[in-house]
Amino acid sequence: MNATIEYEGQTLSYSILTNKRLKHLSIHIHPKRGVIVKNPGFSQEKVHALVKGKAHWIASKLTVMENRLWLKPLFEEEGKTLYLGEAILLHVNQNPEQFYKEKTPLHVNELVKKWAFIMGVTPKSITFRKTKRRWGSCSHKAELSFTLSLAQLPCEVMEYIVIHELAHILHPHHQRAFWACVAEYMPEYKIQEMAIKRYSPMLS
Question: Would you say residue 103 lies in a domain?
Fold first, then answer.
């Protein structure tokens, strides 16, 4: 079911997906499907009231989504991909996945080596895979995993991702001690957190 609300002169459309097995009413912003409300069975009036109350948050998220640099349309429309924050033409018969399989490990492995030494930590392993949302992760066994498309990011943003995940070896949470650790090695990390919102790890 589709519906709309008015917010500051613009019409915001959303879809309602009803599933009575859900426990909570929630709003999700999908890059292709737009605003989706997952509804456990509440009335349309209650759903509409929730969406209206979250209109500012929805509008801001949609603006971020619209301004985001997406790899798939960039390649399909212009034959380009992002490399270290810049749009570049790919060679004939090369696609973004092949490109990042070559470039991302080169940059990330060097950054991990550099910062692991500085921070005094030892990751057990480093792997790369395609992801839709996460740029990186660190398991409780100190196993690092990074999205395959990480080399699309500017150098300082990629460096932040590496420091972030290495800090999790010391602090496996996002509490104050973790952020203090990140700030120790990258005092301007909040700037990089803002910058990363322009990008998406999605390859397709």
Answer: yes
Same domain, 60 and 137: no
Annotate 94-161 with DSSP letters as a single string: --HHHHHHHHHHHHHHHHHHHHHHHHT---SEEEEE--SS-SEEE-TT-EEEEEGGGGGS-HHHHHHH
pLDDT tens sequence for the chain (204 residues): 888 888 888 888 888 888 888 888 888 877 677 888 898 888 888 888 888 888 888 877 776 667 678 899 999 999 999 999 999 999 888 999 999 999 999 999 999 999 999 999 999 999 999 999 899 999 999 999 999 999 999 999 999 999 999 999 999 999 999 999 999 999 999 999 999 999 999 998
In a domain, 83, yes or no: no
Locate 39 and state its tokens: 């509804």
**Cα torsion through 130, 133, 135, 136, rounded to 10:** -80
Q: What is the pTM of this model?
A: 0.74
Rounded Cα gap, residues 97 and 104, in angstroms: 10
For residue 187, give the CATH number of its domain. Answer: 3.30.2010.10
Structural domain boundaries enclosing 194: 91-198
Distances (CA, A) of 184 to 66, 164, 191: 33, 11, 15
